[in-house]
Specification:
- The complex is a heterodimer of chains A (111) and B (115).
- Chain A has strands at 4-7, 10-13, 19-25, 31-38, 42-49, 56-57, 64-68, 74-78, 87-94, 101-102, 106-110.
- Chain A has no helices and eleven strands.
- By secondary structure, chain A is mostly beta strands.
- The model of chain B has no long low-confidence stretch (mean pLDDT 93).
- Classes of the chains: A mainly beta (111), B mainly beta (115).
Amino acid sequence: NAGVTQTPKFQVLKTGQSMTLQCAQDMNHNSMYWYRQDPGMGLRLIYYSASEGTTDKGEVPNGYNVSRLNKREFSLRLESAAPSQTSVYFCASGAGFSGYTFGSGTRLTVV
Amino acid sequence: AQKITQTQPGMFVQEKEAVTLDCTYDTSDQSYGLFWYKQPSSGEMIFLIYQGSYDEQNATEGRYSLNFQKARKSANLVISASQLGDSAMYFCAMRRGGSNYKLTFGKGTLLTVNP
């Protein structure tokens, strides 16, 4: 099915370890986003990419880096994971005034 | 900066009744879009309905309608004839017009439909 694919779905990291969350979309959208969801906080924007080759910080970028590899792929990297980064991460893509499509989420636990 | 406020952390409704989930927003933009998403316990984000700031008619999608009151800056979601499968978290979100496509989310309302 067309849409947004995120990997992995679950991950447990030790404090200080690094990892990359992968995201790919096949809807030819220019814009892609990474959000984190914490209980009682809604979804908060970490980073976004308005088009291939550009990335910008969102509301909570500290501790993360991103790469817009091409139009399809937008990855999120945690260089040195911290317990505060325990969260559910969502990738999304969108095309202007329309519904944004979300991936199925990555549940990350940092111990 | 944009802000979305959902004042109802939790709501209960009887099956087959209608329910309104509240959403107010704050923006100085003239052009913006308002969205509602559903998140069931399985975790995926499901797009429900969209309202543009210049749309004169309230948006409707099946059993979902958006009660858009621009002067009051409110965008309430109305679900008619609630079903057990409507039990979920519901998020209101807003994006600015122009080239800034970021979505800003409210904190959500947990809806429980009772049989």
